[in-house]
Design brief:
This protein is α+β, with helices and mostly antiparallel strands and 526 residues long. Helix content is 40%, strand content 28%.
């Protein structure tokens, strides 16, 4: 499938010049060009905008639009697969395969709502959001990925309340997007709904008071949106029921926009009826028909509110072609300018992979920091005799803290449950007892606070000593299997144990959390 390029800026979108060295390292060119790509996917088309960050305003390099077939109107996975495949080819053609791609979604299976709820703990808030959200969304939230965040806090009748933004998207949409991007090697920067990205327009409008309430009108032939923003946060949005008919900018735009006059007044009345504390003070125009000055004049006369097109979002030429392209590509452009690596709608499998990756990175960093710390400690130890006094004082403080720590209490508990054989001589018993105490101390020190030990047994078996360890992991917001894997690895690195093996493990749900019962077996070194 070929790209259909409806708009392209040549005056302000300069093609990057590739020297021999940069051509050789083409896949890493994003490090010095600092490119980003925004992709907007609707039920009818997908539009992309390639942006290059430089000193000052970002520069729009290229825009393209991908129309969908009518057969794909009800098939989100098909539209997403087609869009991601084209994006993959597009980035490889420009030798920018690893730059982040921000994706904005808009459709009937995707929605946003604002809730006002009393202040409550986070786990109760999540349950309340789903319960109340099912009353407001036109689809079942059980079939959706749901993300909520607190936009602002307030007091009503001396009680604490929170205004909560709730975004929901169908499971099949999100899973198709993340699965297709992973299969094609496309790096996702952020996935959200289009109105969330349009609300970022105020960040570029430095002359506008962010503490006031503003209305952003996105005007296009296929989709027209009214986005209400308060304090820089998305407050409410609505798609226009009446869509403008097709026509050339400058010849038919006023006829198109005039069809929205009555609908726009109804939307403003609806918003003011819901939000009595906020009144729209300004209208910002963007989209296909925003560049015509007659559009701003007509809407200002219709609504009685100051109205102007969006400006300051990019470095653009003053030509009519550049202005038209800037207006039509504003949705994809603002999507590209959003922060990267934020995934409010990501499926659990994606978060699990990210946690594993972060764990490996943090482990590597911790190992390097530990080695550097040990080297510095060795140098400080032997550099001067005065450091000995400091070490003694530090050791005394650490001893006091250790005796008050959970690790020491675990050590005492386990030492009471295990006693060496008292049939031998007193000298032999003292040696065995000291070994057991050292072993129990080691277990106490390396056992994390999220893990509870219930039993420890040591027996002789075929000329070697074998230890059996029983315990339980109880967690609410993290995988207990990862904690168990880390613990097994830590035991294996201990000088006291060898051949650590998981004999059994059983996971069960406990309210909103998980409980993992496990049993380990290991060889005890002499």
């Amino acid at each position: 499938m070929k790209y259909v390029a409806l708009d392209k800026i040549s005056a302000c979108g300069i093609e990057p010049v590739q020297s021999g060295f940069r051509r050789l390292l083409g896949p890493m060119s994003g490090l010095w060009n600092r490119h980003r790509l925004g992709l907007v996917i609707t039920e009818d088309w997908a539009r992309l905008a390639l942006v290059r960050h430089q000193v000052g305003s970002p520069q729009l390099v290229d825009t393209q639009m991908i129309p969908f077939d009518r057969a794909d109107a009800e098939n989100w996975p098909s539209r997403i697969a087609k869009s991601v495949t084209l994006i993959h080819d597009y980035l490889h053609q420009r030798k920018l395969p690893r730059i982040p791609v921000n994706v904005a979604l808009l459709g009937h299976d995707i929605g946003f709502r604002r809730l006002i709820l009393p202040a409550m703990p986070a786990n109760e808030m999540a349950a309340a959001v789903r319960w109340e959200g099912n009353k407001l969304f036109p689809f079942d939230l059980a079939d959706c990925m749901v993300h909520h965040e607190i936009a602002r806090r307030m007091k009503r009748d001396k009680a604490d309340f929170a205004a909560i933004n709730v975004v929901a998207a169908g499971h099949q949409i999100i899973e198709a997007l993340y699965g297709q991007c992973q299969a094609m090697g496309v790096v996702l920067g952020q996935v959200n709904i289009l109105p969330c990205f349009l609300s970022r327009l105020l960040a570029a409008e430095s002359s506008i008071d962010r503490q006031a309430c503003h209305l952003i009108l996105y005007l296009d032939d296929d989709h027209s949106l009214g986005v209400f923003v308060v304090d820089g946060h998305l407050e409410f949005y609505q798609e226009f029921a009446v869509q403008p008919v097709g026509g050339l900018v400058g010849t038919a735009s006023i006829d198109n926009i005039s069809l929205l006059g009555d609908e726009l007044i109804s939307f403003l009345d609806l918003y003011h009826a819901q939000e009595r504390d906020h009144t729209v003070q300004f209208i910002i125009l963007c989209g296909k028909y925003a560049g015509d000055p007659r559009t701003a004049a007509f809407l200002a006369e219709t609504t009685g509110l100051p109205c102007r097109p969006a400006t300051g979002t990019m470095t653009a030429d003053s030509t009519d072609a550049a202005a038209a392209t800037s207006s039509e590509s504003i949705a994809a452009l603002l999507t590209a300018l959003a922060p990267n690596h934020i995934h409010p709608l990501a499926p659990p499998a994606y978060h699990y992979r990210q946690e594993q990756r972060m764990f490996r990175q943090r482990t590597a960093v911790a190992a390097v920091v530990t080695l550097v710390g040990l080297a510095a400690w060795q140098y400080a130890t032997y550099s001067t005799a005065s450091s000995l006094t400091h070490r003694l004082e530090t050791t005394r403080i650490e001893k006091i803290e250790f005796e008050n720590s959970p690790a020491y209490r675990t050590f005492l508990t386990l030492s009471q449950s295990i006693r060496p054989d008292q049939s031998g001589s007193r000298a032999q018993t003292t040696v065995v007892d000291s070994r057991y105490r050292a072993l129990l101390k080691e277990i106490s020190l390396i056992t994390p606070s999220s893990l509870t030990l219930s039993a420890l047994g040591i027996r002789s078996e075929e000329g070697r000593r074998v230890a059996q360890l029983d315990g339980q992991i109880r967690l609410n917001d993290f995988s207990p299997e990862i904690v168990l894997a880390r613990y097994v690895e830590t035991l294996g690195n201990s000088p006291f144990f060898d051949s650590v093996t998981v004999i059994s493990h059983q996971k069960q749900r406990d309210g909103e959390g998980s409980i993992l019962n496990f049993q380990l077996m290991m060889d005890v070194r002499a």
